[in-house]
Each structure stands twice: as C-alpha cells, then as structure tokens.
Amino acid sequence: MRKLIIPFLALALALTGCAGTPEPGPSSTASSGVWANGFPANATIGVSLPPKTTCCSSPIETLFIDRLQEIGFTPILMFAEGGRTEQQAQIKAMIGAGSAVIIIGAVDVSYLHEELASAKKAGITIIAYGGLLRDTPDVDMYIAFDNCQVGTLQGTALLEGLAKRGDGPFNIELIAGAPDDANSKTFFECAVKVLQPKIDDGTLRIPSGQLTQAQVGTEGWLAANVQERFNSILSDFYSDGTLLDGILSPNDTLGRAAITTIADASLPIPVVTGQDSETESVEWIASGKQYSTIYKNTAVLIEETINLVQLLQKGQEIAFTDTTTFDNGVKIVPAYMVPTVLVTKENVCTAYDPVTTASHAAAKTPFCRGEVGANP
Questions:
Q1: CATH of 8-139+297-338, one of 3.30.70.20, 3.40.50.2300, 3.40.50.150, 3.40.50.720
Q2: Cβ–Cβ contacts within 10 Å for residue 187, how many?
Q3: What is the tens place of the pLDDT at every residue in 62-90?
Q4: What is the pTM (predicted TM-score) of this model?
C-alpha cells in the first residue's frame, strides 16, 4: 500500500489549531526564497491541491507521491475536497509537520495569506503550482503550463483551420473563460494578439461585434452559459444564412458547448479550438467534429516541479524561464513555464503520453485504429 507519511501528532495539532509556533525548517535561505544551504535529502515535502473534481485525477497523486518517495523525500499530499477552509487547515498541518517545501495548487489564489505568512516564518519555501498566488510576498516561485503559449496556439490553430476552408473572409465568434480567472485573461489576450492582424485587414469578421473579454467571458466556465449566449448570437446574426466559420474557444468544454448549440440549430460546424484534451474532445477531433485542443502533459509539469524541489534541496540555482512577467500584486514572482502541444486531426493519434488521463482516448477511435471509412 502506498502511504502518505504524515507525522500524526503534528498533523492533529495543526488541524486543531493547537500546534503553537511550528518548528522552523532549514535555517538559511536566500532572499529569493531559494535555500542557500539546501535541506536534508529526506525532508518532508507538502503538496496541497484543489479538489480532484476540479484539478486532477488519480495519476496526479501517483506521479507526485511515487516520484518524491523515489528520490528520498517524505511526501504529504492532500486534496482540499472541502474547499478553501479545508486547504487552509491542510497547509497548517504541513507547516506543523516540518515541511521544507510546500507546493500549492490553490483553491483560491487570494485566500491563503495567513497560512503563507506562517510558512515563511517557519522557513518554508512556497511553490505556486498551476496558478499564481496573489497579493502576498510569501510565495517564492511559480510553475505552470505556459498560458500565453496556449492562447497563441489556439489563435494559430483557428487561422490554420480556416485557411483549409479557403481564402476568406471568414466570420468568427470569440469565447473567453471566467472573467475572474487570471489564466482566462492570458489565454484570451494571447490568442487575440494572433488574430488581430486578420481582424484589422478584414480577413476575419465578427458579426456579433463582441470583441472584448468582458463581452465574451463565460461566468464560472459553465457550458450552459456558452449555450445560452450562442443561441442568442445565432438568432441575432446568423438566422439570415450568414455562415459561422470559426470559434475561438479557451477550452474543450466550452468548445463542445458551442458545437452542440450550432448542431442543434442544424447549421454547419465551424472550426473550433479547445484546451485540456478532454476525452470527448479528443474523440471529436479524431472524427473531425472539433478542430483542435491543447495537450498539457501533467507528467512533465509534475516532474519539472519536483526538479525545482531537488534544486532547492541541493542549494543550487534555478534557471527560471520568466523573471519579469508574473506580478502577483505585491511582487514579481520568478516563474518556470512548461510548454504545451497543439493537437489536431493530423497528430491526434500520436500526441499523447500514455501516463496521463486522456492518452488513450484517440487510440481507441476508429480513425486511429485505421478502420475502413475512418480516415479523413
């Protein structure tokens, strides 16, 4: 049996708020948060993640625990199934357990100020994982997939997909994610930067006139909100026979919602982008129903995160990929961005790492099995 090794007394005290002042971790740190003298090779490493339903699946847990244990660390990994309050308690437990590093995929990136301050007083290095911890000086580094690259690839994919249909001009509509999600803003802005020259020269037209993130944002990332919005768009701007050629969608769920709405209206399916390589969308790409998605190899993100921990343990310098962009409202947080992969029908059968969740979705489709009538 795999065990998440947690010193019971420290955990119990931390969860009940009776731990008192936690014992400090390694005593010597640089002002950047990088350990000047490293820390023990068997140190406790905390990993605090959002609920599995919103962030992860079982391979994530396995990849973190097995790899940390293989190196010699003592991992504590917890999912905040109860939301923000539970994550706060879990981080306090990790502090009380004497963690040298805590990796935090936050339920709410602006809600852990007290816990982060306590961790820093205890000499703990904080790594923001997947989302930048906001409005706090007490975060040392940030690791995530390259969100601007995601948006750039989405914009590029939309243009490439449209080009396969002719020279244009093309009618497109835009979808953005939740307005209160900082990642959503990055996806959208970097995608529109690719599209803007073609909007300016008239190759791309937006009949609805909805151009800004405020106009095209999707509260809560909810598919129902996209369906409601596109029902209105189709009724108001495409009921006269105007053809909708393309949709910029920030993720697979919202892209499928738009496709479903258009199909229900008995209209031709446009070129639609996505992200996350959700199983249904991978199958739709193989069948030609959705044009593209973005593959974010979680195994690589986890491995790079653990590499950061190893460099910290050894007291070695970290070569961040970006030391100027990520302002959390208090400080510029040095970042390590992990690249992503654009997936279309051309590479859908070969793009996926078999370790991760969606890896075999394409391989199971008739198209990737090479069955009669399944090729483009």
A1: 3.40.50.2300
A2: 29
A3: 889 999 999 999 999 999 998 899 999 99
A4: 0.78
